[in-house]
Design brief:
80 residues; mainly alpha; Arc Repressor Mutant, subunit A; 41% helix; binds FE2/S2 (inorganic) cluster
Amino acid sequence: MIVCVCKSVSDRKIRTAIANGAASFDELQFELGVALCCGKCEESVRDVMAQSGVCASRCGVEQRDLAQPVPLMFCERKAA
Ligand code: FES
């Protein structure tokens, strides 16, 4: 199943990248380009990561309760 339409990345590609050592969302973005265009696939990519056990075992992100609202965070970008 295609997870990222913009970059044509399937769940199989994501699982393969994880099996080959991608240990965080940032690494998947770097290797596969997921969530770098429209960003609508981020939640689905993170779901595949969670199903693959990456979040619980390697990146430290805890599974959140989907019924609870997510607090908004604003990040400031600084020019290089
Ligand atoms: S669907 Fe993944 S960046 Fe647009």
